[in-house]
Write a structure and sequence with these properties.
globular, alpha/beta, 4 helices, iron-sulfur, 34% helix, rSAM, TIM Barrel, metal-binding, S-adenosyl-L-methionine, three-stranded parallel beta sheet
């Protein structure tokens, strides 16, 4: 039976997939985003990301090892500074409000935009594996 009379308990969240932008620099036929979406240059705002993290912390739903994945669209169409600000704010929030949580970051990328600036950035952040 799908529904039960017992309360539903969520498991800790181990991974949060975020879309910094839906914009993409290429046009893959297999992409699950619409062509219109892939041409939109809007950005996910920092306050929305922090609201999500704050809610997860407030509900005690962060796993002890928590990964934030930047995915969909092409994350590297945004500058490294965008992610530097996001990552710094997420780490700061977790350190202050969920000190037992180890947070790391992943990027799902088509890799066509990786240059020296991105390599320098990747050396500075806690990337997953």
């Amino acid at each position: 039976m799908f529904f039960t009379s017992e309360p539903y308990h969520l498991k800790p969240v181990e991974q949060l997939v975020l879309q910094g932008t839906s914009f993409c620099n290429i046009d893959c036929t297999y992409c699950d985003l619409s062509k219109e979406s892939r041409r939109t240059k809007s950005r996910m705002p920092l306050d929305l990301v922090l609201k999500l993290i704050r809610e997860l912390i407030g509900e005690a739903l962060l796993a002890s090892e928590f990964i934030v994945v930047w995915h969909s669209g092409e994350p590297l169409t945004l500058p490294p500074g965008y992610y530097a600000a996001m990552i710094e704010a997420i780490i700061d929030m977790c350190e202050k409000n969920a000190p037992g949580v180890a947070v790391s970051f992943d990027f799902q990328t088509n890799a066509t935009l990786i240059d020296n600036a991105w390599c320098d950035f990747f050396r500075k952040v806690r990337l997953g594996y």
